[in-house]
Amino acid sequence: MTWAxxxxxxxxxxxxxxxxxxxxxxxxxxxxxxAAMQGDPARVLGSDGPPGAPSVVPQAVPADARFKLxxxxxxxxxxxxxxxxxxxxxxPAKAYRVGAAVDGELALLSVRPRAASLGPRGQPAQVELQxxxxxAPASGTLGAAAxxxxxxxxxVPPPQPGEPDDAEPPPMPRTPASxxxxxx
Length: 184
Fold this sequence. Notes:
Blueprint: H1 2-18, H2 41-44, E1 67-73, E2 83-88, E3 94-97, E4 101-103, E5 106-112, E6 115-119, E7 127-130, H3 144-147
Antiparallel strand pairs: 1-2, 2-3, 4-5, 5-6, 6-7
């Protein structure tokens, strides 16, 4: 048993060392780690911010047509940070943390469930973005089965011993719910 494990290990390492690796596809690109979003994952996952952080109550502010709120990661505690996905001037959406500059002097001031506020740092919000309303839930209907128009299944008795296998089954009963049409 021990010699089988030693032999298996030798075969494994021999194949590993003397085999040629597969070539990298020509269309493959190197992933840049610098482009990845870096920061404190605890804040993204909803941990509380520093103790004593002020809670800001947003006021109603008009929305700017250049910005579209695509998604939010809102904390449970108000004013504890968060991330918003915002599309600017019809470009693809980018992720912004609370406090990050979105466009020029506008920064992401706060994130709430289904909303985000933009404005200059240290000042009240100038732009209030809302996520679009959710569509109504789909509700199905049972159709013809609920109205009783589907005929019930007819039970066919199992073949009796001694009966030939190619015996003709009993005739199907006619359903009165489907009237026959006259040829035209």
